[in-house]
Write a structure and sequence with these properties.
Blueprint lengths: L2 H9 L9 H10 L1 E5 L4 E3 L7 E7 L2 E7 L2 E8 L4 E2 L1 H6 L6 E4 L3 E7 H10 L1 H28 L7
Antiparallel strand pairs: 1-8, 2-7, 3-6, 3-8, 4-5, 4-7
């Protein structure tokens, strides 16, 4: 893929849509293109968050370790962005991301990510919106799971 194709790809992602073309070109140039095969792990739950990924092609499952084993909580597709929570909060990865098909990504380092957020406040707003959507989805899933659980009698 050419640099211009990467810029066009980034422009279609809401997180980066308001960034001027010259800065998108810099992002596309400095981001690392990585390919993962089916079953490969992009990142492990508990690892240090040193980068975020944009899914260019393919699908990846977001898996969370529980007492009952790993649970798939989401499936990422083209133009999805993952890994920003560990970068923003400086906490270990909150989930494992595993390629469901062959996956092509752009990996953005933590340093580059923070430079972009500092230079483009509109990007911060888009990050907050995406994180809020994820919290809402998770809350809805929890409500549904709790409502389906049998009620235990109280003593």
């Amino acid at each position: 893929m050419s640099l211009q194709q990467d810029v066009d790809l980034l422009r279609n992602i809401p997180l980066f849509s308001k960034i001027e073309p010259s800065k998108l070109k810099l992002l596309a140039f400095t981001a690392e293109r990585l390919t993962f095969n089916v079953g490969d792990v992009l990142c492990h739950q508990g690892d240090e968050g040193d980068s975020a990924y944009i899914i260019i092609a393919g699908e990846a499952d977001v898996l969370v370790d529980t007492d009952s084993g790993q649970v798939t909580v989401a499936t990422l597709k083209t133009n999805d962005f993952v890994g920003e929570t560990a970068i923003l909060c400086d906490v270990p990865r909150t989930a494992t991301v595993k390629a469901k098909s062959d996956v092509e990504t752009l990996m953005i380092s933590k340093d580059l990510f923070f430079q972009l957020v500092c230079q483009f406040p509109s990007m911060s707003i888009e990050i907050m919106r995406e994180l809020a959507r994820r919290v809402e989805r998770t809350t809805a899933q929890l409500r549904e799971a709790v409502s389906q659980r049998p009620v235990e009698p109280r003593n």
